[in-house]
Design goal:
This protein is α/β, with parallel strands linked by helices and about 350 residues long. The protein has helices at about 65, 70-75, 80-100, 125-135, 150-155, 175-180, 190-195, 215, 220-235, 295-300, 340-350; strands spanning about 10, 40, 50-55, 110-115, 120-125, 140, 145, 160-165, 200, 245-250, 255, 305, 325-330, 330-335. Keywords: Membrane, Transmembrane, Transmembrane helix.
């Protein structure tokens, strides 16, 4: 996001990285012998004076609050202005889309679920999920921090649609998902959202080895995640938008291009909200309520796997030699490292702040 991915010198677990810039050999010096000045990691290490902790995924905060951590990372690279500009455009886009569907009526009741252990699930739990759903024009199901599978299915009876954000790698389809809950027949189930096939998974974007991008990318690119939900709930409001993270369970996957280039930071229809522009207000009800297929209007593919094309290029760094180490601890991507004295001073000033994630 800051155009400094060429500074990365070590990635602890390449198998969990989706960005093609970090595949083996690209950059060439992805090894643990690299010298570095700061390591960004996802766990606290009081024994290492060069360690900075970044726990964006672990801290429950509203969507734009998470995205704003980009500014923290920028301090180490003299990219404060770039980060502030990027964040502000992202926040403006988010507010624009939120306002577009604010008057939509009636609104769907949505369950945002996540499997947190072998037989425990969380439902619409926390500020991130509830704010995101409400800002996308939905009514979140009542929050439950932990329910077993039987309790979960009882809760979901009143849901118009389910969005399962459980971090899974590999390919999942309707049959596999229903099998988890012992459901063998779509037509004979008492669950309305199953009969209407209103099941969505947060795993559209995969690496070539099947790693799901949602856990590491959605924290930064909340503008995409927000529009993903709007395009599912209110397809006509989004027109040509293609979902990035969320897919209908019958749809296929998207694999990032193998070319190393800067990520697209804004949706393909972003110009509808740029420069003070305002898209037409959407006041109709959600197609989720009618049982019609909302996914067909918002998906980039109907089956299989599609390949993304890269349209943007990486920009260099203006802080001289910067060495970055990327660690993946407990499944959370972490980043870090540099050589500029001024940046090291800023790092020390923020040493006790628990921050970090893949924002390079």
């Amino acid at each position: 996001m800051l155009g400094v991915s060429d500074s990365v010198k070590y990635v602890q677990d390449l198998g969990k990285v989706v960005d093609p810039c970090y595949i083996p050999g690209s950059p060439a010096e992805l090894n643990n012998d690299a010298k570095y000045d700061v390591v960004f990691t996802s766990t606290v290490d009081d024994t290492d004076a060069k360690a900075a902790t970044f726990s964006a995924a672990a801290v429950d905060a509203a969507p734009l609050n998470r995205a704003e951590w980009l500014k923290f990372v920028s301090y180490f690279f003299n990219r404060e202005l770039d980060a502030a500009t990027t964040y502000q455009r992202m926040a403006d886009q988010y507010a624009c889309r939120k306002a577009q569907i604010a008057s939509a009526d009636p609104k769907p009741t949505i369950a945002w679920i996540e499997k947190i252990s072998e037989n425990a699930w969380a439902v619409s739990n926390g500020a991130f999920a509830r704010t995101l759903l409400a800002d996308a024009g939905a009514v979140p199901m009542a929050a439950r921090s932990e329910v077993d599978q039987t309790q979960l299915m009882e809760v979901l009876k009143n849901s118009h649609a389910v969005i399962d954000v459980t971090a899974r790698d590999g390919e999942w389809n309707l049959s596999l998902w229903l099998k988890m809950f012992g459901i063998s027949s779509v037509s004979e189930t008492p669950y309305k959202f199953v009969r209407n096939r209103k099941i969505y998974l947060a795993d559209r974007r995969h690496s070539t080895n099947g790693t799901n991008a949602f856990p590491t990318e959605s924290t930064q690119l909340v503008n995409f995640l927000h529009q993903d939900l709007i395009s599912i709930f209110y397809p006509p409001a989004q027109h040509t938008y293609f979902t990035r993270f969320i897919r209908h369970i019958d749809d296929g996957y998207t694999t990032p291009s193998g070319t190393c280039s800067a990520a697209d930071l804004f949706p393909n229809n972003a110009k509808e909200c740029d420069g003070g522009a305002k898209p037409d207000k959407y006041t109709a009800g959600s197609s989720i309520l009618t049982g019609s297929d909302a996914a067909s209007s918002s998906s980039s593919s109907s089956s299989g796997t599609t390949q993304e094309s890269s349209t943007s290029t990486s920009s260099g760094t203006s802080v001289g030699t910067i060495i970055v180490v990327v660690l993946v601890v407990v499944g959370v991507a972490a980043v870090g490292v540099f050589v500029a004295p001024g940046m090291m001073r800023k790092y020390r000033e923020r040493k006790n702040q628990a921050y970090m994630r893949e924002m390079l």
